[in-house]
């Protein structure tokens, strides 16, 4: 399924809340913990690496006085950016946030789906539960 990084973050937060509020074991909870959470972990590792690369690509480079080697300018543990670098980084971060990626869904049988809130249905739609069509007024 194609899904944005933004939607996956919403899914991740909603899953965390659902698990916290539903302590009993069920097929639905099993699907979350065994099928979806490992996929999310893999995804977020890649996402974090991509964010890191954007940061590295856009920060200020400094030259080591002794070796003349290029290095990233870090002051007080924080990478430094000039105006254009910060602007580019922000734009690329935003594009990555909205980027659609392939995510492996696992649709649970209707009989195993517990009662869900509207927000849970929206977050789980097409990933854990059959896709729901949102009504537009």
Secondary structure elements and pairings:
Blueprint: E1 2-4, H1 5-21, H2 27-58, E2 61-63, E3 70-72, E4 74-75, E5 78-79, H3 83-98, E6 100-102, H4 118-124
Antiparallel strand pairs: 1-6, 2-3, 4-5
Helix pairs in contact: 1-2, 1-4, 2-3
Write a structural description.
By secondary structure, this protein is mainly α. 53% of the residues lie in helices and 12% in strands. It is built from four helices and six strands. The strands form three sheets. Strands 1-6 form a two-stranded antiparallel ribbon. Helix 2 packs antiparallel against helix 3. The longest helix is centred in the N-terminal third of the chain and has 32 residues, at 27-58. It is elongated and about 70 Å long. The two termini are 26 Å apart. The model has no long low-confidence stretch (mean pLDDT 92).
Q: What attributes does this structure have?
A:
137 residues; mainly alpha; two-stranded antiparallel ribbon; 4 helices; 6 strands; 12% strand
Short description:
The chain has 137 residues and is mainly α. The protein is built from four helices and six strands, in the order E-H-H-E-E-E-E-H-E-H.
Measured as a percent range, the helix fraction is: 40-55%
Note the main sheet.
2 strands, antiparallel
Order of strands across the widest beta sheet?
1-6
Shape: elongated
**DSSP helix count?**
4
Low-confidence stretches: none
Counting helices, strands and paired strands, the structural category is: mainly alpha
* Mean pLDDT across all amino acids: 92
Q: How many β-strand stretches? A: 6
* N-C termini distance: 26 Å
Q: What series of H and E elements makes up the topology?
A: EHHEEEEHEH
Radius of gyration: 20 Å
Instruction: Provide the β-strand percentage band.
Output: 5-15%
């Amino acid at each position: 399924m194609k899904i944005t990084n933004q939607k996956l973050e919403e899914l991740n937060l909603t899953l965390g809340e659902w698990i916290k509020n539903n302590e009993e074991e069920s097929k639905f909870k099993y699907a979350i913990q065994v099928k979806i959470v490992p996929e999310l972990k893999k995804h977020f590792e890649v996402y974090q690496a991509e964010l890191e690369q954007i940061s590295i690509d856009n920060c200020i480079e400094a030259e080591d006085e002794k070796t003349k080697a290029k290095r990233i300018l870090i002051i007080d543990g924080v990478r430094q950016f000039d105006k254009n670098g910060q602007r580019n980084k922000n734009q690329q971060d935003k594009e990555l946030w909205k980027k659609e990626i392939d995510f492996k869904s696992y649709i649970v049988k209707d009989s195993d789906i517990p009662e869900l809130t509207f927000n849970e249905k929206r977050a789980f739609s097409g990933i854990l539960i059959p896709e729901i069509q949102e009504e537009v007024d």
